[in-house]
Amino acid sequence: MVNLSHPSNGIKFLKLKWRKLQRLASQVGGARNIFCEIFGHHKAENTFWLDSSSIDKKRARFSYMGGKGGSLWKQVTYRLSNKSDMTFKGGYISIEDAQGSSKSTFLEDGFLDFLNKELQSFCYEEKDYEGLPFDFYGGYIGYIGYDLKVECGMTSNRHKSMAPDACFFFSDNVVAIDHLCDDVYILSVHDGITTSTPWLDDVEQKLLSLQNSATKKLMSDGSQPAATARSKEGFVAEKSREQYIRDVEKCLEFIKDGESYELCLTTQMRKRMGETDSLGLYLNLREKNPAPYAAWLNFSKENLCVCCSSPERFLQLDRNGTLEAKPIKGTISRGLTEEEDELLKLQLQYSEKDQAENLMIVDLLRNDLGRVCEPGSVHVPHLMDVESYATVHTMVSTIQGKKRSDASAVDCVRAAFPGGSMTGAPKLRSMEILDSLENCSRVVIHEGEASIGAGGAIVALSKPEDEYKEMILKTNAPVNAVMDSQI
């Protein structure tokens, strides 16, 4: 959220009301039970869940969830024009309000300019959020597709996504969970015209009833895959092993010729799904592969769900203006025994190839953050730390800087998007090369198809066969979750 202490004319003050339910989260079975009880009905349509499902609370302390229902709620959907490039970057936007009315228009200046103006058009009274331990009080929740790189310096897109290039909710009713203190917060944003709080009253009553009921265990109703016919077909790789290895070899040729230092090559695994319990799929994924930056986004009108279990933070901007990125470069599988697991962790820690990958992206992110941060403020408090997750060990670095006062949150996104760990370095030339090698747009689940993107960073020390194995390793958890979600 944008907090303006001295807003100019046209800035709208929104009112925020909230309640704190102390030590309640574990008493009702945790975030999963809360989501299923409050938002899980009717296939969890038009809901979101920013889900810190990793058990390591030091990595991500808060989870946020919400859904359609408030008077300020709306959905914003954006699709790039087929002609979009740096000189013509416009696209079509559709906005649906809480009453179901929709309007569409063409945005000549693109989506990020629209989002920037939206965020700067409102703010909160500071006294309304005093006492809250987190920085999100309601507002825009959604995703920005990879193809919006044309609004961030890339000259053009070779491929066109079938899914929207950006999709957001404006969420005015939010439940937040503090995993460190076990507290639950319920928040409602309104325009100040009304003083009633029916949503807060209703949710508080549901949570207290849940506390007193026998459903403290993980609920089964609404949280398991529906009994639909399972497709016997598994995932189909967009490229065969031989094709992927040839692409890695082409990347190595580009690197040898000095066109790039690092190329983050990806491919897609796809499966036709038919009718699927998407929430059951996500609940299965978060159980099998818990992650600090997991997410569920269900844009029902678009027949689109995002099911994410990411250990990586792209960007975070806090209330003090600290901008942080946590890129991951370097991945290895977990061991079958404690001894093997520790050896694999050490192997990653001292891998010359993985260190090179990570250091190049750290240097790229330092440059990206430097474009919007105060001179001399960008630093690297953690370099090449190894973090362990359910299925893999990863090498993670942390880059921080102090945002300039004249830079907005959207300016920060524009400076760093797409994340360097998704592109390589130098960023623009690397994206051009990747567009020429990859056969399609990097997309999300859409219209009955599960699409899982995976890949890895190619550097001069890369071995093609090893890169293929790393790509397959990264798909294991989401592929298994999708297959298990079908009976």
Automatic annotation (TrEMBL):
It holds the Pfam family Chorismate_bind. The lineage of its organism: Eukaryota, Viridiplantae, Streptophyta, Embryophyta, Tracheophyta. GO terms for cellular component: cytoplasm. Residues 241-442 form the Chorismate-utilising enzyme C-terminal domain. GO terms for biological process: 4-aminobenzoate biosynthetic process; L-tryptophan biosynthetic process. This is Aminodeoxychorismate synthase. Residues 43-186 form the Anthranilate synthase component I N-terminal domain. Signal peptide: none annotated. It comes from the Eukaryota. One of its GO terms (molecular function) is 4-amino-4-deoxychorismate synthase activity.
